[in-house]
Amino acid sequence: MTGAGPTLDGLAEDLEDMKANIHAFASQLETTTKKVDAVASAVAAVGGQDDGQEKDGDGKEEKPKTPPFILLLTGEEYAAELAALAGWVSNLLVPTYLGDVSSSAMWCASWWEHPAAVARLHALWLAWQAMTDPETCGLTGPSVWHRDHLDPAVSQLRAPDGPFAACMSYTDRIQHEVLPVPPLEPLLTRAAGVGR
Q1: Has residue 98 got a pLDDT over 80?
Q2: CA angle, 145 then 146 then 152, to 5°
């Protein structure tokens, strides 16, 4: 029978296939929506950006929250953030990842006195918080954290010309010295090309 239209059985089979596809898309949409909600909740929980829609007690829109750059914090806010960071550095980072101190892998027992080290360690800690939660980053988050965050940060911190360059290079001799800030000339209007 050439040129005959679709059969009833064929149409029923096509309809079932379409239902299965729609069900799969709906399930995938539900899963993706849950993941997006989990990421938004996790970001809000660690002080990250929210949707900007929240209102304070007076009904005014609150400013979106972003992870703090620790060197811009002051007073009690800085002290609290530094104390939380110090717990993570002492309990996880140093005993798990830093190993021996040497001339090619410097360290400073007073790391918190080096602003460049504080900034890098804080950024590393924020990334660790985000990347070790399977609800927000999936099962590959820890691997990404090691590759993209831990390894580069530790290499920079412990480099012979890093923030600890004048500090410990041998574990039997604790040494600490904050490197001086390089000189900086003031910007002159003429040198900057302003007014030409």
Answers
A1: yes
A2: 100
What pLDDT score was predicted for residue 90?
94
Q: CB under 8 Å to 6, separation ≥6 — which residues?
A: 14
Instruction: Report the distance separating Cα 106 and Cα 161, nearest Å.
Output: 9
| Short-list 71, 173, 163, CA closest to 123 | 71
CB–CB of 167/179 below 8 Å? Answer: no
Is residue 49 within 8 A of residue 65, CB to CB? The reply is yes
Facing residues of 102 across strands? Answer: 105
Per residue in 7-55, pLDDT tens? Answer: 888 777 877 877 776 666 566 666 655 665 666 665 555 554 444 444 5
- In the predicted model, what is the mean pLDDT of residues 151-169? 89
pTM: 0.59
